[in-house]
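Margin note from the TA: students keep mixing up input and output lines. Inputs are the sequences; the output is the structure of the whole complex. Example:
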Amino acid sequence: MLTKRIIPCLDIKDGRTVKGVNFAELRDAGDPIELAALYALQGADELVFLDITATVEKRKTLSELVNKIAHKINIPFTVGGGIKTEEDVSVLLQNGADKISINTAAYMDPTIIKSFAKNFGSQCVVLAIDTKCEADGKWYVYLNGGRQKTDTLTTEWAKKAVDLGAGEILLTSMNHDGTKQGFALDITATLSSTLPVPIIASGGGGESAHFYDVFTTGKADAALAASIFHYKELAIPDLKQYLNNKGISIRL
Amino acid sequence: MNTVIIQYNAGNIQSVLYALERIGMTAVVTDDPTLIQSADKVIFPGVGEASTAMQYLKERNLDVLISELKQPVLGICLGMQLMCRHSEENNTPCLGIFDEQVQKFTTSLPTLKIPQMGWNTIGDLRSDLFTSVPENSFAYFVHGYYATLGKHTIAKTDYIQTYSAALQKNNFYGVQFHPEKSALVGEQIIKNFIAL
């Protein structure tokens, strides 16, 4: 049976993990490769690396890092952050990334979704959406790391992106991100039950029960979290054992 | 040990090379017929679309060359599908090494996503390829088409229906999943292939 996926996310700046981590097992807590290898060993099903570097040197640094990760890690991984052109995608895939994730650039020019899917296959095109539920009760798309609101409904953008060739949706709820109070179950379930592609839920995971909820009520195919894993508030083996005991199909 | 990875217009070739390097092996990535024919082991990887890949192979006579190889050959994902008789993906005649057919996943259940993407179990394991691999081990799959069950089936997986997770005929092996991305299980399968 196909299992639900647990995906740690690492934020990268200038080739280093941004959020401080405190793993006794690691010689260098800021080294994304060491941290990624540890997560892979602990049973992470995939990894996501989001590059938040904002310099002109970024592309070269990132592709070199991706190459090192690909040499070290034996599970699939996605790379995101500032990807705009076919050349960007080509370099990352050639260096060993399995998937790329796009967000604001795809919203500004949706035709890149189609060209990426045609040239590299839908399976490697992950559309990331930052979304927020407004006072009117509707979920809207936000851009530029959540700083810029749009008038586009998340359901409409997600459907359009899938029609253009996006192979997966990484949905982050800004209302829930950082709260550790649980994932956005309603919008995740809405997308998962209306779209033919996997939905990765992100934002709000604080304890094991939240993951159970997002895989059942939220109908998510995968769940992503960052700080609760980095700060060892929740260990991946414990989380996966909990989910397995509760009857969720999971890889142990 | 002289291992060759066939270079053609498909993705994930680098990932296969890196996976070999992780377990202390090396390989040459090439489409040179002489190098392919003289290799001890040949890996035929692939992520992509069947008809475009077959056309590319035919234009370079790699279709005939692959079919006539005598050493162990391992097809991965699209590579395995191209070794079957026919693919429903754009109605493509393939190499015909395995008699099994490649068909499209179809379902009316909205909870089942197509392509299948993620970790699933492989069972009913019947080959040297799976030495030291326990029944129902997890492997990583990404595919919208599958090979039917048949006499060459050496591993099975369930998604929508039961299908061939791996095939073998004489020196030809094929796996639908990605051993290069399947953690320790995948590394064991690659080691087993190299040790054949």
